[in-house]
Amino acid sequence: MRDSAVDREWGGTVSVRSLAIVAAAASLVACGCDAGGEEASTKTVEELRSPETCKQCHPRHYEEWSGSMHAYAAKDPVFLAMNRRGQRETDGALGDFCIKCHAPLAVQAGLTTDGLNLDEVPDEYEGITCYFCHNAVDVVGDHNADVIVANDTTMRGGITDPRTASAHHAQYSELHDRNSPRSSEFCGGCHDIVTPAGVELERTFQEYRESAFATTPGAFDSCVGCHMHADYDLPVADDPDTMVPTRTVHEHLFVGVDVALDDFPHREAQRAAIECDLANGTGIFSIAATPDGQFEVLLETDAGHMQPSGAAQDRRMWLRFIAYDENDQVIYSSGDVASDEVVDKPEGDPQRDPNLCLFRDRLYDEEGEEVHMFWDAASVESHQLPTRTDFNVPHTVACTYRTPALPARVEVALRMRPMGLDVLSDLVDSGDLEPSIVERMPTFTMHGAVMHWSLDEDGFDTVKRIEPFPIDCPDQYRCLLQGGDIDSCTPGG
Ligand code: HEC
Ligand code: HEC
Ligand code: HEC
Ligand code: HEC
Ligand code: HEC
Questions:
Q1: Nearest C-alpha neighbor of 380 from the set 194, 172, 167
Q2: Is the CB of 224 under 6 A from ligand 2?
Q3: What is the C-alpha separation between 1 and 138, in angstroms, rounded?
Q4: 398-413 residue pLDDT tens
Q5: How does pLDDT run across 223-282, given as a tens digit for each residue?
Q6: Which residues contact 326 (CB under 8 A, 6 or more apart)?
Q7: How far apart (Å, rounded) are the C-alpha atoms in residues 426 and 240?
Q8: From CA 358, how far away is CA 26, in angstroms rounded?
Q9: Which atom of ligand 3 is found nearest the CA of 259?
């Protein structure tokens, strides 16, 4: 156990405490008396730690999880590059700060202290695994991954009356129950980051706690409630030794905005799922014009936190606004960014667009210079779409433009890039990231937020969606998850 001053600064004391609890729980396993168990389970802790074991009986959960960012968290080349650079630039002071969230089991087992040796760490310790989530028994803080794992053979979940499975004991837990605020504390504990400099870098949980979804009785929703879609009347296990009833099964793809950038299972399904959730989650509320060509576009999000959220210092979400005259010539545009182009050009760049309507966080160092990396940040400035804090109060944000003359038509679309090309190039320049990764960063168009404005014959504004609202797109990515290809799996099909 290390207890240098630097270590404590980076939250090292936390893992020390969790390790002590883990050690206590391990002795329970040794006596064969862990939760719920008169009989010993047929699988050992070592076996249960591997997602491959779960796959035998929970193949659907496994397929979804294997394509998720939780499975990717310690394989993500951008993560590896950033951690490597952070360790170098802080002379190792970063310690286990990053890896504690991206491979918590490896840190708890003492297999890594800085994440630089992940090549040597067995797969089942990497990422946010089945065993990690389903063996979690408590979360004590509200940031920086204060999750405690029992290290026993009991799998905790949201089912109140689980059947006795031979492979593992099963137990209901509030931490996994979408109807309990405790479940958001469980997710939230990792989805808020405070850096040693005290910068509240990622604030998804904090934003959620202040939202109407957490504070309005009767309108309660949780992280799990929104992010793990329910599918009804299915067995949750495929187990020849147990009579398994039908229940509600919950999706384990954990869709956000990030995608796998190198070879990884279910990449197409992940992308289709992101397009689907983004399309349904964010919208253009209205477009209004004055006769002299002043436009106001109101945007809003239905997410239970701001948008972008979390790694908002890396995300780029912006509005593309293109105005055409009667001859279909572009007379004005903003945010019409090519797929290989940096969204927000730096100060002084002749191509910088002063009207760009962009949502992201910005990090600054002590001198007030803008920086990209966590460990350089002394402060953060947020420009995000707000979530609802009151169901009776509008929560839109306006983007405004002035066109040279009243256009014949205008097309607006909200777009999202999971990570800015400026941040990725910074990692390439420092020699930490393979340049080919940069080209693979996608740019999503939020299809629910693609709108068309024009004037009708009587001079009234008409605003319509260009693309149909893809309500039934889940069918497409579920078809892809089951091994279909992009041609046979059509949205709604
Ligand atoms: C040999 C088959 C088998 C294996 C292997 C297996 N399970 Fe299960 N699991 C079951 C059965 C059977 C149930 C009970 C289903 C029910 O009650 O509907 C179950 C239930 C669960 C539950 C629900 C608990 C609750 O109360 O909500 C979770 C969570 C779970 N398993 C996770 C896992 C994880 C994680 C692994 C791998 C570490 C795993 N299982 C491996 C058969 C298995
Ligand atoms: C990030 C944490 C997390 C990870 C990783 C995770 N699960 Fe879950 N799982 C949950 C939560 C939370 C629930 C409860 C959902 C609910 O009841 O609304 C759940 C529910 C379940 C259930 C009960 C049935 C159901 O669908 O509700 C099973 C079985 C299960 N998970 C198996 C797995 C397996 C197998 C893996 C890995 C392949 C895995 N889980 C990975 C959080 C996780
Ligand atoms: C051990 C910490 C940890 C816990 C607990 C955890 N997560 Fe995560 N989660 C992560 C990390 C790390 C990533 C990002 C991995 C990457 O992109 O490299 C992530 C990614 C995600 C993403 C995808 C984000 C994106 O932009 O694509 C979603 C959605 C998500 N988590 C939801 C949840 C939910 C819901 C729960 C609770 C059931 C949960 N997480 C619990 C650490 C955690
Ligand atoms: C009321 C529904 C709702 C609740 C509650 C909710 N989310 Fe989200 N979340 C969304 C929607 C909608 C999006 C945007 C679509 C997408 O990217 O999946 C989103 C996006 C995200 C993302 C991607 C980051 C980004 O920039 O958009 C993460 C990570 C995430 N949520 C985690 C969480 C966590 C952790 C919690 C609980 C503390 C939570 N969410 C609660 C609906 C919700
Ligand atoms: C408290 C837990 C936690 C810590 C500490 C943490 N991360 Fe993460 N990381 C996450 C979560 C959660 C996400 C997903 C965020 C989202 O989608 O909004 C994530 C996403 C990422 C991503 C991919 C998405 C992106 O655009 O940035 C990278 C790269 C990353 N983290 C690198 C790091 C590095 C490097 C460190 C250490 C300097 C670190 N993380 C520390 C939880 C953590």
A1: 194
A2: yes
A3: 22
A4: 999 999 999 999 999 9
A5: 999 999 999 999 999 998 889 999 999 999 999 999 999 999 999 999 999 988 888 788
A6: 408
A7: 52
A8: 49
A9: 27
